[in-house]
Specification:
single chain, alpha/beta, Rossmann fold, DNA polymerase, domain 1, 2 domains, 6-stranded parallel beta sheet, 40% helix, 12% strand, globular, binds 1,6-di-O-phosphono-beta-D-glucopyranose, binds magnesium ion
Length: 212
């Protein structure tokens, strides 16, 4: 039985990888570290500071202090926020918008479960804030996926037992998080390849075939 559905944001409801890429690339260039789309793919679902550490694996300069790392992450975020400010409701597909509406009408409680600290801002830009009963994001967690904290918080906000929650994710780390949190899981996009989720979705509206 499923009573609540928890959605990852980036890669499930909206696609901001290109903005993450452009912003990290600009930051990486500023300190002369190599960065490409393949490295960017490893950042999916990973927190901002953990993403920076992955990028710095290629860094060969003088060791960076924690303070400097925070500064670099802040610079990236400023560039990223500038790019996010160009988003509009047209950046959400009709398939996504109508699926969320239909699930609500069927009586499911819906929450966001995103690692991003910019999640609310993104939802505001694309006019999806009202689609959710709760929002669990990078601001209310101290451990990032594959730790289940973000999803367990979402379940808590909704008042649901994790056993009755379904997580929809595009990242393997997110599917691992759902499983270790004792939740059901559905993979979409890249996460389909890891073959760990109970359900695989070609498009979000495939949820409507089993969330009746
Ligand atoms: P921010 P999700 C994740 O969002 C992104 O996939 C990941 O690339 C990003 O580093 C992370 O949010 C943190 O984002 O810098 O905005 O706090 O997929 O969990 O919705
Ligand atoms: Mg994601």
């Amino acid at each position: 039985m499923i009573e609540s559905i928890i959605f990852d944001l980036d890669g499930v409801l909206v696609f901001t990888d290109k903005f993450h890429y452009q912003a990290w690339k600009q930051m990486a260039d500023s300190i002369g570290v190599y960065f490409d789309e393949e490295i960017n793919n490893r950042l999916r679902g990973v927190s901002r500071m953990d993403s920076l550490e992955i990028i710095l694996e290629r860094y060969e300069g003088e060791p960076l202090s924690d303070e400097r790392k925070l500064e670099l992450a802040a610079e990236k975020n400023e560039i990223y926020r500038g790019l996010l400010s160009t988003m509009t409701p047209d950046d959400v597909s009709t398939n996504v918008r109508e699926t969320l509406k239909a699930l609500h009408e069927r009586g499911y409680k819906l929450s966001l479960g995103s690692s991003s600290k910019n999640a609310r801002y993104i939802l505001e830009r694309v006019d999806l804030l009202d689609a959710f009963d709760a929002i669990s994001d990078g601001n209310n967690i101290s451990r990032s996926k594959p730790d289940p904290e973000v999803f367990l918080k979402a379940a808590g906000f909704l008042g649901s037992d994790p056993r009755y929650c379904l997580v929809v994710e595009d990242a393997e780390a997110g599917i691992d998080a759902a499983i270790s949190g004792g939740m059901h899981s559905a993979a979409i996009g890249d996460a389909v390849n890891c073959k760990k989720a109970e359900k695989e979705l070609q498009k979000l509206s495939d949820l409507l075939d089993f969330c009746l």
